[in-house]
């Protein structure tokens, strides 16, 4: 009798494990300035979700980290608030953050960066920040050497701006970008290169930002349309 009861109990536990919804803690990737007080959420997850679909293609996402986009600054380039992003870490993707040829592989791709709260506070001490750690999503448009003088920077940045149809006042953008670059170059004095990204605000181009490669988590491999 006791044996039968134990078997039934084990079967019930196994059924619960098999059929109850499984949950996953998913980090936010902030598109724009981190806001609010929460940097992740718990979602229901299909039990067998390592093989998913992108359009008609079935892909293995078991090696990718999932992020949920929070914010609107990438909506202009096809990544609305609430999108799913699946990124491969630099280590798994064989990206050497000290090598320019390796870093150039990220140009033109969406990337995930670790939030550097100390840098933000140093650059904007007036800000009251409620998110202390986590990730942000950006579109990488170039990689610059980190020790450019003003003329060298102007030459490289002007080439970017020439291709930027959304920038209507290139002289002003060049000046703003130089100030951001100069700060990042000084703050990240151990970085040989700086990642250049572009952001938007309310559908309009907001400007360019400069990030240390050491804050790079990885490159986004799939976005938006992945379904179980």
Question: Could you tell me the mean pLDDT?
Answer: 84
SSE series:
HEEEEEEHHEHEHHEEE
Biggest beta sheet summary: 6 strands, mixed, barrel
- The separation of the N and C termini measures 43 Å
By DSSP (H or I, 4+ residues per run), the number of helices equals 6
Helix- and strand-based class? Answer: alpha+beta
Helix content: 25-40%
How are strands sequenced across the largest beta sheet?
Answer: 1-5-6-11-7-8
Q: What amount of the residues lies in strands?
A: 25-35%
Q: Ranges with pLDDT <50 over ≥5 residues? A: none
Tally of distinct domains:
1
Anisotropy-based shape: elongated
The gyration radius over C-alpha positions equals 22 Å
Record field, number of beta strands? 11
Account of the protein in words:
The protein is an alpha+beta fold. The protein has one domain (21-223). The protein has six helices and eleven strands. A hairpin with a 2-residue loop joins strand 3 (51-54) and strand 4. Helix 5 (150-162) packs across helix 6 (170-187). The radius of gyration is 22 Å and the shape is elongated. The mean pLDDT is 84.
